[in-house]
Specification:
The chain has 297 residues and is of the alpha+beta class. It has 6 helices and 15 strands.
């Protein structure tokens, strides 16, 4: 049973029979249906059913020659609305299941960003028609990120004035440029980044003696656990929306957050969030990162 079902409002599924009943509803009455011919006489399909606004469960499988659908994979999803990044994206198939992940480098984070690919059928369709190959992997495309969380806390925000915001934006831009140069092998950029990291470590070590760590670190984006697309985030809350799963009647928070200058949305079950989220406060928790890649010609 998928551990992130509770994020989309299914926290009380206790048996395989209940899960199969819900999956049967998804296959019988999908909100959206995506199909493509991947192999001869085989049609790959993905069926999505919304149980709240942009929140639901997706099943993926194949239709055989007789028109019967064979379920291979299912997952809960939350579809974002904001383009979070524009980068080169590499798509890779997972070895343990019929799923794909996207990977890209975003200098604002400093590590490779890996996310679960939501629109697999679009990728299969483009890949089968040779419209997404090595040449396309080097092309910058828009990516809409979103996240599902099973645990989180609301923290107080950091108060900043406009001058501090301007300085932070300038420093971020300079660091991004240095990271881009360092990736190309520029030794001066590498040395400059090393010195900056030493200075930053010294500053944090000095301040942490008298201050709480969350008053020093405004946001963070850190890989979490053994799964490549799981992260621990500390992010500023920009917008808050509360929706209800029409099937289970459970309430879900939809949070628009900003983390390391990257804006995306996450959803979390009301019972799994400690605190009352409001714009200006911060969210701290573990998320499963998902993404929609715009496959364009």
């Amino acid at each position: 049973m998928h551990s992130y079902l509770r994020s989309v409002g299914f926290s009380n599924i206790d048996s395989r029979e209940e899960l199969e009943q819900i999956l049967g509803m998804v296959m019988a009455q999908p909100t959206d249906k995506y199909v493509t011919s991947e192999k001869k006489n085989v049609i790959a399909a993905e069926l999505d059913k919304e149980f709240a606004e942009r929140i639901g469960i997706s099943v993926r499988g194949e239709y055989d020659e007789k028109g019967f659908f064979h379920l291979e994979h299912y997952y809960p999803y939350f579809t974002g609305q904001v383009v979070s990044i524009r980068e080169e994206v590499a798509i890779n198939k997972r070895v343990d299941t019929d799923a794909y992940t996207g990977m890209c480098d975003d200098f604002r984070i400093g590590v490779s960003l890996i996310f679960y690919l939501q629109n697999v059928i679009d990728y299969i369709d483009c890949n089968g028609k040779n419209r997404w190959n090595n040449r396309w992997n080097n092309r910058i495309v828009p990516v809409i990120l979103s996240g599902l969380s099973t645990e989180g806390k609301v923290l107080l925000g950091n108060k900043k004035n406009s001058n501090i915001n301007i300085n932070i934006a300038t420093d971020t831009k300079q660091r991004t440029q240095l990271l881009a140069e360092a990736k190309k092998g520029n030794q001066e950029a590498i040395d400059s980044l090393t010195i900056d990291d030493i200075d930053l470590y010294a500053m944090v070590s000095r301040r942490v003696r008298n201050e709480d760590i969350y008053s020093i670190v405004e946001s963070s984006f850190i890989p979490y656990g053994s799964e490549s697309d799981n992260y621990t985030v500390l992010a500023n809350i920009l917008e808050v929306k509360k929706v209800q799963n029409f099937y289970t009647k459970e309430y879900i928070y939809n949070l628009m957050i900003e983390c390391n200058d990257i804006v995306f949305e996450i959803c979390i079950n009301e019972v799994d969030l400690v605190g009352n989220p409001e714009p200006g406060m911060r969210f701290k928790g573990n998320i499963w990162l998902q993404g929609l890649v715009t496959f364009i010609e």
